């Protein structure tokens, strides 16, 4: 949530359409003294919201902006259900259990007598990685205590392309980031393993970088870490942040080993509100085994009617996103998700090829990974990607521009995320609008360059200026000719400079 600052009681005027209901201005930062008609309240708010961007044209966001009307109806019907009231809403609880099982199977979690996966629904992947990180920290502390070793300096190793800073700061864990380099915008597994020490609670890999959509090499990371654990006697595990890629890789990259098939992967988070195809905000976190989630972190409450084990940072939350997630899983099935992800990938290919054909950009994202196109200007000397992004807004497109993290912050890129509701027609329209924008940017940059240069005068203007100067000399406004610098014909510096602009003299 954005952090808001309390302000004075400034008033705002009622909107045009609401003026038939309201004659006095409404306070902007204080609760009004009197009620107003519901029509007026609706119109005032609706008028202001018109200034928001169009979610379908918000190409910055990975979050779902379209669902089928039937799913919308289910969400609206459940909007007044508090998910934590499990005893009162047992069917909703059952649907969450089914979602956890489906996702666990999708990620190849072991399910049997020896190992049984567990998981929870969360408020997006932000809460999911907080819970996963907290479980790793507590398990590491318990092991260190049992060994009689210090447990006050935990650290987590991750790439600079992943945002674990909030977890590290809130839960007092040192953040050890693998810096990026130009042309390599994901965590280097070799460098990550080099940074691991006895205080490392886990290495966090990402399946779908926010910057470029790339999948990190979790298989290589696992193999290198297995070798280091064997050498040192440590037991450093892996968490996979699959917020974006968790609902992509199983469907179109089934042979890619990144999930619970790798023995050191102990937990995985995924965003249901990204490529899980649900509106914001639902996420999921799955643990390989119930032993990977320390029992002391689980709360058991019974004041709502029955024993309810919970592991969450948020107590109350809506049930509707969980219901929507279940709808999408059973409505689409494996083949339906696969078709959507392949369509997204195909549309990303069309957009990438179109952007390359403009001749202005270098594409820095890869063909595989999350379906997005990240691209940088070949020449940033006349204008920047930030100016290009701002100019695109006149067509309605919201395209983010940003710099890479350290040590690649000199690279600035734009990024277009391809979601289910971004069609091939929209991709072609964006390419056309981007082409127009670049032509305008060139023209504007040319005008600025011309304005910066001294204006060139015609031959007639120069002749007139020289004649005027001579007349002033003859009239005695200048007492003598300047021979000091040896200009020809006894002319002074000004006259000679002007005459040399005439093509027949110099």
Question: What does it look like?
Answer:
By secondary structure, this protein is an alpha/beta fold. The protein has 13 helices and 15 strands. The chain has helices at 38-49, 69-77, 90-106, 124-146, 165-170, 189-195, 218-232, 249-252, 320-357, 385-392, 424-452, 459-474, 493-499, and strands spanning 11-12, 26-27, 118-122, 155-159, 174-178, 200-206, 238-241, 265-271, 283-287, 299-301, 308-310, 361-363, 372-377, 401-403, 412-417. Helix 5 links the parallel strand 4 and strand 5. Helix 3 (90-106) packs parallel to helix 9 and helix 9 crosses helix 11. It starts with 10 loop residues before the first strand and ends in a 7-residue tail after the last helix. It catalyses: L-glutamate + H(+) = 4-aminobutanoate + CO2. It comes from Leersia perrieri. One of its GO terms (biological process) is L-glutamate catabolic process.
Structural class estimated from helices and strands: alpha/beta
Helix content: 25-40%
CATH-defined architecture of the largest domain: 3-Layer(aba) Sandwich
Q: N- to C-terminal separation?
A: 70 Å
Strand content: 5-15%
From the 3D structure, determine the CATH topology of the largest domain: Aspartate Aminotransferase, domain 2
List SSEs in N-to-C order: EEHHHEHEHEHEHEHEEEEHEEHEEHHH
Radius of gyration equals: 32 Å
The CATH homologous superfamily name of the largest domain equals Type I PLP-dependent aspartate aminotransferase-like (Major domain)
Average pLDDT taken over every residue = 86
Number of strands: 15
The number of helical runs is: 13
Cross-sheet strand order for the largest sheet: 3-9-8-7-6-4-5
Domain count = 4
Major sheet characteristics: 7 strands, mixed
Structural shape: globular
* Name of the level-1 CATH class of the largest domain: Alpha Beta
Q: Which segments are poorly predicted (pLDDT under 50) over 5 or more consecutive residues? A: 477-506
Catalytic activity: L-glutamate + H(+) = 4-aminobutanoate + CO2
Pfam family, one: Pyridoxal_deC
EC number: 4.1.1.15
GO cellular component, one term: cytosol
């Amino acid at each position: 949530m954005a952090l808001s600052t309390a302000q004075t009681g400034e008033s705002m005027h009622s909107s045009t359409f609401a003026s038939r209901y309201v004659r006095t201005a409404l306070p902007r930062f204080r609760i009004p003294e009197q009620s107003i008609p519901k029509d007026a309240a609706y119109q005032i708010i609706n008028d202001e919201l018109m200034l928001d961007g169009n979610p379908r044209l918000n190409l910055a966001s990975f979050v779902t902006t379209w669902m089928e009307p039937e799913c919308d109806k289910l969400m609206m019907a459940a909007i007044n259900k508090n998910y934590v009231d499990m005893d009162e809403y047992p069917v909703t609880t059952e649907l969450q259990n089914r979602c956890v099982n489906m996702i666990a199977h999708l990620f190849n979690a072991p399910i049997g007598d020896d190992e049984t996966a567990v998981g929870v629904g969360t408020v997006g992947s932000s809460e999911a990685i907080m819970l996963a990180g907290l479980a790793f920290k507590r398990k590491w502390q318990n092991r260190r205590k049992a060994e009689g070793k210090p447990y006050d300096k935990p650290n987590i190793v991750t790439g600079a392309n992943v945002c674990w800073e909030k977890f590290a700061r809130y839960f007092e864990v040192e953040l050890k980031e693998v810096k990026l380099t130009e042309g390599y915008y994901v965590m280097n597994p070799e460098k990550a393993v080099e940074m691991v020490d006895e205080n490392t609670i886990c290495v966090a890999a990402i399946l779908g970088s926010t910057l470029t959509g790339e999948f990190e090499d979790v298989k290589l990371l696992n193999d290198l870490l297995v070798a280091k654990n064997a050498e040192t006697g440590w037991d450093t595990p892996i968490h996979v942040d699959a917020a974006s890629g968790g609902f992509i890789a199983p469907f179109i990259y089934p042979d890619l080993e990144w999930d619970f098939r790798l023995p050191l992967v102990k937990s995985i988070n995924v965003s249901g509100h990204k490529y899980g195809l649900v509106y914001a905000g639902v996420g999921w976190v799955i643990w390989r085994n119930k032993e990977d989630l320390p029992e002391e972190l689980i709360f058991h409450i019974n004041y709502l009617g029955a024993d309810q084990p919970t592991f969450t940072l948020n107590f109350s939350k809506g049930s509707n996103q969980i219901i929507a997630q279940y709808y999408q899983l059973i409505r689409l099935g494996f083949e339906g998700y696969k078709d959507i992800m392949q369509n997204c990938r195909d549309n990303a290919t069309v957009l990438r090829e179109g952007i390359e054909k403009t001749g202005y950009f270098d594409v820095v994202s890869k063909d595989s990974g999350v379906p997005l196109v990240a691209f940088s200007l070949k020449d940033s000397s006349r204008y920047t990607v930030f100016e290009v992004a701002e100019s695109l807004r006149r067509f309605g497109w919201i395209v983010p521009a940003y710099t890479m993290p350290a040590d690649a912050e000199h690279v600035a890129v734009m990024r277009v995320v391809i979601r289910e509701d971004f069609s091939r027609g929209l991709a072609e329209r964006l390419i056309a609008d981007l082409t127009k924008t670049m032509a305008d940017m060139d023209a504007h940059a040319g005008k600025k360059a011309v304005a910066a240069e001294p204006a060139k005068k015609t031959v007639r203007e120069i002749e007139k200026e020289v004649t005027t100067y001579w007349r002033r000399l003859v009239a005695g406004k200048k007492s003598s000719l300047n021979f000091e610098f040896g200009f020809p014909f006894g002319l002074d510096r000004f006259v000679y400079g002007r005459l040399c602009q005439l093509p027949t003299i110099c």
